[in-house]
Amino acid sequence: MKKSRTIIISCAIAACLITTTAQAALHKDSFQLDNATITSVHTVIKTHKLTCVELITRYLTRIKINDLSLTRGAPINAFVALNANVLSQANELDRYYARTGRFLGPMHCIPVVVKDNIDTVDTPSTSGSLSMLGSQPNTNAFLVNKLRKAGALILGKGAMDEFVSGMNGISSKSGRVGNAYDPNENPGGSSSGPAAAVSANFAMIGIGTDNSGSVRIPAAFNGIYGLRPSAGLISQTGIFPRGNLDGVAGPMARTVKDLAITLSVIANAPDPNDPKTQLEIHRRNTYTNYLIPDALEHKRIGIITSVGREKTFDKNSKPAMKIFDKTFQNLQKFGATLVRVKLPQFNGRRENNMAGEIQDINDYLKSFPSTRQNFRDICKSGRTQVFNGVKECLKHIKETAKKNSRTYHRTLKMFLANRNYVENIMNKNKLDALIMPINSHGAASYDDSGTNTGLGVSSNSGLPAITIIGGYTKAKPAMPVGLELIGKMYGEGELIALAYSYESHFTEKHSPKILAPTKPSPLLNMSIPQMNNLFTLIGYDAYNQYLKNSNTQMIKAKQFAALVKLDLSKNIGKSHALQKTRADQT
User: Fold this and answer.
1) How far apart are CA 498 and CA 464, in angstroms?
2) For residue 571, is it left (φ>0), alpha (ψ between -120 and 50) or beta?
3) How many domains does the chain have?
4) How high is the pLDDT of residue 29?
5) Which residues pair with 363 in a beta bridge?
6) Which of 200, 230, 478, 573 sits a CA distance of 20 to 30 A from 9?
7) Are strands 175-176 and 205-210 parallel, antiparallel or unpaired?
8) Which of the following is catalytic: 131, 171, 214, 370?
9) Closest CA to 493 of 258, 283, 217
C-alpha cells in the first residue's frame, strides 16, 4: 500500500512544465489571464506578444500554484487530470500559425476544461468514480473533435459529482471541489470542476453536462455563464450516458461572447452516431450574430412564480429577494417588460428520467477497453460513493426502467407535453423568455431545498436555458447570485442576445480573489503525470477516510483541507528527495 501512495517521478527534463524560459515568459508582457477572452488571446498571438506554448504554460502555472492552495481554507481542487500532451499540441498550433499566418479555427489556442464524463484520448474518463480509475477511451467525444478542429486545446478534465449524482462537487475520484469565490463553499454540481476552473481562470472555457441543473447551478454559484442547450443540439456521443434521456452537454464561460463562440463550434452540425442530433433542428451558422447590446429593448420576459405546486420564491431570504428584485428592475431599466407567470400544469416528476441508462452505459463501456465492462461491474467494484454499497447499486439496475420500455416512452411523451405547454403559455403571453432564480436561497448553499432547476422547467421539456448573474451578496467574500433565462426550442440565439444585452449594461462585477501562497509553490516543479498522480491520491484518501463507509456522501471543507495538507507534505517531500537523489547521481 505504501508503494501506491508514492508519487513516481518519471518525466524527462524536457517534459517538465516550468523551465527557465517558461518562467521568463510569464513576465514578458502585461497580458493577464484574469481578463483574458478568446478575442484578447488571438490579439496577443497575432501581434507576436505571446505564443500558444507561452499562454498554456501560464495556465498550467496558475493551476499548479492555486488549484490545491490552502490559503483560503479548503482548496478549489477543480481538476481530475491534466492533459500531458497539451504543450506539444500548443507547439503544433504555433508551428501551424508560423507556417500559414492563419489560425486553425475560431478557438485557436483556447484552453478548455471538459467534465470528467466527456471522452478524450489524452486523459481517462472516470465520471468522478474511483470504480472507473484508469478507464481510457480510444476516441474523442464528438464535441471534443469539434473543439480540436476549431483549434481549441483540451487542458484537462474537470472534477464532478460522481456519476452526475449531486450538486455539491463530491466524488470518490476527487474528494471535494471548492467554490472559486470561497473554496469552503458549495461549487454546485455536477459540473463542479469545469465551472470552478473557468471562474478561477484555470481555463477559459468549460464544457459540462446538465440533467437537473448540472451546468446551470455551478455556473451560477461560480459567477459565470452556463448554457443548457435544447435537446439534440449538441452530440452526446462519447459522453458517459448516465441519465441520457434528458442529459445534454453545454458550454460555460466568463463572457457571453466566449460562450457564443464555443456554442457555434460544438453545435454546428449533426452527429451521424447520435439520432437526437439528426432531427429537424434549426441550426445557426454562428451564435455571435446574436451579440446585440440593445436586445432587451421591447422584449417581454415572464417571471416564473410557481411550477406545479412549488413556488419558486418561497425559500428566499430578504437579502436574496433584494437581489432578485434588483435584477428585475435592471431588466426593466434595460428595456424589457416583465410579467408574472405560473406553470400549474407542468409535470416536474423526475423519477423516471434515468430510464434506459443501464443499457446505454453497458453499450458505452463495451465501446473501448474500459476498466468496467458493464454497470454490474461498477456495482461489484465496491468503489462507488453514490449507491451506498453493492446491494443498493445492484438494486438500482433492477429498478431502472429499460430502454424502449413503456416507462421510457411515457417519459419522452411527458417531455414533449411539457415543451408544448410552456411554449403555448409563452405564445399566449407574447413572451420572449422566462426567468427564475437558480437557487431561491440566493448564493451558493449546501441546502438544496431551494434549487429551482430541479423543478424541471428546462430539464423536463428540453427547452434551452442560460444563467445570468443578478448580483452579489454583501458578505466577504461577495458571492454571486444567479438566475436562469429559459427560451423556446432551439432559441439559444435569442437567449444569448438577452444575456449579452444584460451583460453589456450590468456594471456590478466581482471576480474571485485567488490568493497565491506566500511561498513559491513546490508543485511548480512537478510534471503533469506527477500532478495527475497527486489528484488521484487525494481523491483515493478522501474516499477511504470520509466516503467509503458513510451515508452522508459529504466531506466538510476543514476535513478536506487537512487531508490535502497531509498528502501534499508527505508526497512533495518524497518527490524532492527523489529529485535530489537523481541530481546527485548525475
Assistant:
1) 13
2) alpha
3) 2
4) 55
5) none
6) 200
7) unpaired
8) 214
9) 283
